């Protein structure tokens, strides 16, 4: 029994855009307020209102790009309410998410400051559903115009003399649903209209992202591409992984049977089919692959934790989530010629979060650790990998037991990311490395694993699941031989 993999270290394919490791932070539950923004007067240690512990943790995983302010929230957000002296800002009701009142203290200036602190590119999602063309156009003018204009002058009065650099701009969110319940034909026309007034000022060149399909709505992609492909730089796609069904019960994040482990991973793998099929449609209109597929919402979506506000989408995060993240990245890498950016939903305290907070406490989730371990793939060259895998059998159904991806970074180091999906059996691995002298290489590894399917970190035991060195890998001629424990995500580096 063996999983036999050949890694061609001298066959470099496309670059893995580091933006594949992007994030999404919406005004939802405790995602922004409490999770990121605590305000300058908070007893929680902060820098200009951003909590320091979360900031440091996010810096460590080198967040390349951050999407904001939504999500469904984006199509109800009126940016002018979120600028100027904080105490004078309009309070608002977040009707989508829990009906809570927000004080608008986290607005454009605070978001741009956060991105600067993180060294992340901002990705702003504009309001099509309930906003005007003028409002969207003026937001871009406010942020990026370097000169004399009503919006630029207003920005200066608000303490930002220089325009910001802004590349990524989304024209609406889920306009087939919470963003206006539109037909694709109608949205395509609106996209054409709105994006006309989203201007490039000076040398600030926007990368315009059209709102894309929900899951397998291939018709949406077809209509958008047919009617507007020459006016867009990116087209989005949203797909969430859940073992149950959206409206009737998604399943618990921590309390689940073996079958739900299997179904969750099976559904995570569905991302590969979705990308392949949506890409095939995009290829017809854009064979050169100029337009990026922007998967700006993905991740697990479980039932909210019992006792929490259901509108806040707060869920725990187990080793199962780590497997979902690892699988997604290996899939995204394979499609890196089309997939230019992805944004996990969401960064802190919401859905498949990297970080959970409770008052001044903070923990890093298993998903965080996958982002940390896999950051070596940022902007590296994808290597050609071929494999023959054992089957992970569950009743009548089966999946490949192992998922593998490999890249070569700018210093020539080779990084191999591995997932063993099987919840019971270790995986025998034989990784043949072609195109390098293995005996002369130094091999190091890290592994994230657990002995229970629901293993997770709590505020009492924040390091229950964390990566450890993985030394149990042998060099046998031109191959690496290893046993990858059940339920594990690992990374190997050869230098
Ligand atoms: O991420 C939570 C929500 O999921 C987003 O607001 C919306 O775009 C999607 O339906």
UniProtKB/TrEMBL annotation:
InterPro entries: Alpha-L-AF_C, ASD1_cat, GH, Glyco_hydro_b. GO terms for molecular function: alpha-L-arabinofuranosidase activity. It comes from the Bacteria. Its EC number is 3.2.1.55. Belongs to the glycosyl hydrolase 51 family. GO terms for biological process: L-arabinose metabolic process; polysaccharide catabolic process. SUPFAM superfamilies: (Trans)glycosidases, Glycosyl hydrolase domain. Keywords: Carbohydrate metabolism, Glycosidase, Hydrolase. Pfam families: Alpha-L-AF_C, ASD1_dom. It is an enzyme of class 3 (hydrolase). Homohexamer; trimer of dimers. Pathway: Glycan metabolism. SMART domains: Alpha-L-AF_C (SM00813). It catalyses: Hydrolysis of terminal non-reducing alpha-L-arabinofuranoside residues in alpha-L-arabinosides. Residues 296-488 form the Alpha-L-arabinofuranosidase C-terminal domain. This is non-reducing end alpha-L-arabinofuranosidase.
